Amino acid sequence: MISILFAGAVSMVLTLLGTRLAINVLSKRGYGQEIRDDGPTSHHTKRGTPTMGGTVFIMATIIGYFAAKLFTMTSPSASALLVLFLFAGMGAVGFLDDFIKIFRQRSLGLRSKAKLAGQTMIAVIFAVFALQFPDERGQSPASPFISFIRDINWLHLWPVLVVIWILLLIAGMSNGVNLADGLDGLATGASMMVFGAYTLICIWQFNQSCATAPGSKCYEVRDPHDLAVVAAALTGALFGFLWWNASPAKIFMGDTGSLSLGGALSGFAVMTRTELLVLLLGGLFVIITASVILQVGYFKLTKGKRLFRMAPLHHHFEMLGWEQVNVVIRFWIISGLCVVTGLGLFYAEWVAG
Length: 353
What we know:
This protein has helices spanning about 1-30, 55-70, 80-105, 110-130, 160-180, 185-205, 225-245, 255-270, 280, 285-300, 315-320, 325-350; strands spanning about 145, 150-155. The model has no long low-confidence stretch (mean pLDDT about 90). The two termini are about 25 Å apart. The protein is mainly alpha-helical. It is about 65% helix and about 5% strand. Helix 5 crosses helix 10 and helix 6 runs parallel beside helix 12.
């Protein structure tokens, strides 16, 4: 437990101090956010706000994790290293996207095909390696089964299909967080709640692990304790980042941050055997993604009519006249309800056996 607390504390302090430094450096270099001209007009005042803040909490999370490993003199696990690889790898794709936006002074960065290719490459590498590295019980970080709260025994997939399934999950969650990152602190606060929930889930799975407490209710998860350390580091890093990212934001996470958070979220879902449960835990991201799909579909079916005033959904409420802070707080409440419901289902499944 001490390594979990230590990782969270170190990463939080690093982002609290490091983000202030990043704001100064990025401002001096003119690395400011470009704003879409077709977005809400109130957002034009944010033009020039430093972006790529995701680099700060990515570095803080990685340092926090390895500091905890050094503090407790324990070795990193395959599961934790793979999640960190996915987290940092997706962040690297986002960093290229952000840098192109800044360098070319436009609101669009990487071309969609290049961005998708980068995400696919990182996701496939993660999926392939996640099926390797069995422990002494033969348990690999990822499972060949689709999972809800545990593996669903009748949903066994061939290795190629497992890779495709993980790829779809990563693409969906990374782009879901990316779409949610449109208002000050919205994606940061919602992600912090979900990773906080995964910290609790991993701790519970460690206490009820089949490796240490075999029984009918035990969890077949390879490295639950080490995953809890990563989740705590992420939660602490986002907590520190939110200090500067809350309205009015002094810095944006950019695609660097949003793609990395979505990648980490799907990574935890795969490693903890909660691939379908993550759709509830990250319910806000699912709702926001669905609003874009519905908007596009309705627009095409009705030949130009719109279901919402603007998509993603949070911009619709802005266009209705809601203050940005009100939208963010109410969406945080929705995210909190999704997280609490997901944790409730997770615990209820264990109680019911």
